[in-house]
C-alpha cells in the first residue's frame, strides 16, 4: 500500500533507522515509512547523522578542498580509463576534463594510508568517514528491506566482510570529488551555459550509479535527481552540517526486481566567482562483492511478483560491466511499502486499539487461521526447493489438480520428479488442502510446529492426541534430508 505523498524530500534521523531486538518502535516505523516514500517519489532522501558526527563530515570536506587546491592537472596521465573490468579496482587521483571534475577514490585494502607507501597519500580522515558512511549505508539498506517485508539482513551475503579479511579489497568506495575548481584547466569548454550563468552537463551525461546505496555530502548545492514525474529536483540545497543525501543504485534495483528504482542524477556547476576551491563532495558507494550474485529469491520468498528478466541470478562482475541505459529500465507504477499512519497526537496507540477492536468483531475461525498459515509456510518450502534447482514452478488450481491426481504425466507429477520429492509425502499446492493433511505435513519436517501456534488453533479436541499425526511425524520427520544434495554454482 503506497503511503501519503510527501511535499518535499523526506528527512530521517539515522538513529531512528537502527533496528533493535523485539517489536519495532514507533520512531522506527515512522522513519522507515518516510524513507521508503521519499525514495518512491524523489529517488532520494536526506539522512541526519548524530550531531557529534557533523564535525567529522565538515573536516572531511575541508581536507578535500585543500587536497585538490594543492594539486596540478596533468592531462595525459590523469584521465580515467573506461575499462569496466576495473570497476572494483579504482584508487587514487584522476580527473575528467569533460565533466570538469577531479576525484580521489579511497578503497580500503588497495589505497595506502601510511607515509612509507610509494603511492600518493589520500586526504586526511578518509578511513573514519568511510567507516561512518559504511555503517549508515548498511542500516539504510536494512530499513529498505524492512519496508519490503524481507527477512532481516537479506543482503549480508553479497556485501564485504566487516572488517575485511587479510588481503581483501573493499568493493565499496569513498570518492572525494571536486567540481569546477578555477585552477583546473581544460574542462570548461565541454559544458553548456544556462541563461542564469550556471553550467549544466549535457543531457547524455545523466548518471546512474551501479551501487546498492550511495551517500553524498557536499559543501555547496548542485546535485539534481529526477523524481517520479520526470522533474529535476535539487536535493542538496539546504543540507545541514550533519546531513547527507542517500539514493539507490542499479544493484539494488536488480536485487529487488525493480521494486526500488535507481536514481538518475546530474550535477549543476554554479558560477563560483571568487571561490578558489570549487564544489567539494564526499560520495560513498556501498557495492556488492564482485564474486557474489544478485538474486531475487528474497523478494519471491516475501511474496513479491518477480518479472521474467529478474528470474535468474546475475553475477555481480557481469552486471557491473554491462551498460544500463535509463530508458531501458523496467519501471513500476508505485513502490510497494508498508505505511504506519499516525493518530493526530502522533501516537500509534489509538490506531492499534481500533484495529484490535475491529479484529474482535470478525475473528477468523481457528481452523481458518491455521490453514492460512500452513498454506503460506508450505508454499515457501516448495518454492525454496525449486529455486535452488532452478525450476520455474507453475502451480495448478484446485479444479485442475483433481484431474491430475490419477495421471502419471500430469504437471504435478512432472514437478515432483524435477524437484526430487520423496515418495509417499503429499505434494503441496497453494490451494486449500484438508487441514489435517497440512498439519501432518508440517509436523513431518518441523516437529512441534502445531504446538508453537496459539493453543486455540489446535484441531484436536481438548485432551485428545492425533495418533495419525504422531505416526506421520515419526515416519517422515527428516524427509527433506532425503532430497538430492544441491550446491550453488556461485558459491
TrEMBL record:
Gene3D superfamilies xrefs: B-lactam Antibiotic, Isopenicillin N Synthase, Chain
InterPro entries given in the database record: IPNS-like_sf
Name of protein: 2-oxoglutarate (2OG) and Fe(II)-dependent oxygenase superfamily protein
Amino acid at each position: 500500500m503506497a503511503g501519503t505523498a510527501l511535499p518535499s524530500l523526506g528527512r530521517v534521523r539515522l538513529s531512528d533507522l537502527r533496528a533493535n531486538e523485539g517489536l519495532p518502535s514507533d520512531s522506527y516505523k515512522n522513519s522507515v515509512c518516510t524513507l521508503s516514500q521519499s525514495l518512491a517519489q524523489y529517488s532520494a532522501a536526506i539522512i541526519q547523522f548524530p550531531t557529534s558526527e557533523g564535525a567529522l563530515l565538515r573536516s572531511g570536506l575541508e581536507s578535500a578542498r585543500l587536497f585538490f587546491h594543492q594539486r596540478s592537472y596533468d592531462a595525459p596521465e590523469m584521465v580515467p580509463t573506461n575499462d569496466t573490468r576495473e570497476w572494483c579496482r579504482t584508487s587514487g587521483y584522476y580527473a575528467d576534463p569533460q565533466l570538469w571534475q577531479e576525484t580521489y577514490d579511497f578503497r580500503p585494502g588497495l589505497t595506502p594510508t601510511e607515509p612509507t607507501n610509494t603511492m600518493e597519500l589520500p586526504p586526511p580522515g578518509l578511513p573514519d568517514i568511510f567507516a561512518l558512511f559504511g555503517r549508515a549505508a548498511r542500516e539504510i539498506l536494512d530499513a529498505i528491506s524492512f519496508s519490503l517485508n524481507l527477512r532481516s539482513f537479506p543482503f549480508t551475503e553479497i556485501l564485504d566482510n566487516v572488517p575485511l579479511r587479510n588481503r581483501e579489497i573493499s568493493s565499496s568506495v569513498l570518492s572525494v570529488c571536486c567540481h569546477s575548481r578555477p585552477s583546473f584547466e581544460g574542462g570548461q569548454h565541454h559544458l553548456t551555459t544556462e541563461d542564469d550563468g550556471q553550467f549544466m552537463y549535457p543531457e547524455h551525461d545523466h548518471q546512474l550509479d551501479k551501487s546498492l546505496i550511495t551517500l553524498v555530502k557536499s559543501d555547496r548545492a548542485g546535485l539534481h535527481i529526477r523524481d517520479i514525474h520526470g522533474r529535476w529536483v535539487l536535493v542538496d540545497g539546504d543540507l545541514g552540517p550533519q546531513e547527507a543525501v542517500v539514493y539507490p543504485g542499479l544493484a539494488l534495483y536488480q536485487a529487488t526486481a525493480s521494486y526500488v528504482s535507481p536514481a538518475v542524477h546530474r550535477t549543476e556547476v554554479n558560477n563560483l566567482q571568487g571561490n578558489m576551491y570549487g564544489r567539494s563532495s564526499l560520495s560513498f558507494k556501498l557495492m556488492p562483492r564482485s564474486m557474489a550474485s544478485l538474486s531475487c529469491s528474497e523478494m519471491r520468498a516475501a511474496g513479491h511478483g518477480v518479472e521474467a528478466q529478474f528470474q535468474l541470478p546475475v553475477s555481480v562482475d557481469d552486471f557491473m560491466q554491462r551498460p544500463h541505459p535509463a530508458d531501458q529500465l523496467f519501471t513500476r507504477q508505485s513502490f510497494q511499502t508498508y505505511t504506519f499512519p499516525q493518530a493526530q497526537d502522533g501516537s500509534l496507540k489509538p490506531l492499534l486499539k481500533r484495529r484490535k477492536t475491529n479484529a474482535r468483531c470478525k475473528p477468523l475461525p481457528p481452523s481458518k487461521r491455521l490453514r492460512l498459515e500452513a498454506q503460506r509456510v508450505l508454499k515457501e518450502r516448495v518454492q525454496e526447493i525449486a529455486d535452488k534447482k532452478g525450476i520455474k514452478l507453475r502451480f495448478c488450481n484446485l479444479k485442475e489438480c483433481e484431474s491430475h491426481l490419477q495421471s502419471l504425466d500430469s504437471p504435478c507429477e512432472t514437478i515432483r520428479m524435477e524437484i526430487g520429492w520423496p515418495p509417499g509425502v503429499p505434494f503441496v499446492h497453494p490451494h486449500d488442502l484438508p487441514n489435517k493433511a497440512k498439519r501432518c505435513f508440517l509436523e513431518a519436517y518441523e516437529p512441534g510446529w502445531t504446538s508453537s501456534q496459539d493453543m486455540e488453533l489446535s484441531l484436536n479436541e481438548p485432551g485428545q492426541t492425533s495418533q495419525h499425526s504422531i505416526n506421520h511425524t515419526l515416519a517422515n520427520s527428516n524427509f527433506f534430508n532425503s532430497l538430492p544434495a544441491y550446491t550453488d554454482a556461485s558459491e
